[in-house]
Amino acid sequence: MEEKVSQPTKDGQQPISATKVVSDVRTQHTKKPKFLQHVGIQHVHERTSGTNLEAQLAAEKKGSAELREIVNTLTKKVEESKEARARQEEEYKKKQAEMDAKLDLLLSQR
């Protein structure tokens, strides 16, 4: 572990933190439990480092923001559609009222 921490870094790179080195060594040398696999459960999660979790969280936040934008767009379209449908319904009612009035006029002239 000490060798990994003391390794020289390339220009512009940050030195490897002790926490990262310890995490890497533990994942390499820790015996992975096989109990779940022995009892027939195949899906065993590997341990992940903090950087992987941060990257995963960032990706989920980005996906969440994209989904929120899609939902907002669809909600707006639904509202526009409802408004258009309400206008069509009012026009239909007006036309129906005009037709009823004309029909009443024709029937009253007999």
Describe, in plain words, how this protein is organized in 3D.
This protein is mainly alpha-helical. It has a domain at 51-109. The protein contains four helices and no strands. It has helices at residues 2-6, 18-29, 35-38, 50-108. Residues 1-28 are annotated as: Disordered. Residues 64-105 form a coiled coil. Residues 1-17 have a biased composition (Polar residues). Keywords: Coiled coil.
**Major beta sheet, specifics?**
none
Question: Rg, please?
Answer: 34 Å
Secondary structure tally: strands: 0
Output the helix-strand order: HHHH
Q: Termini distance?
A: 107 Å
SS content category = mainly alpha
Number of helical runs?
A: 4
Helix content: over 70%
Shape: elongated
Mean pLDDT: 80
The percentage of residues in β strands lies in under 5%
Name the poorly predicted regions: none
Biased composition (Polar residues): 1-17
Keywords: Coiled coil
Region (Disordered): 1-28
Coiled coil: 64-105
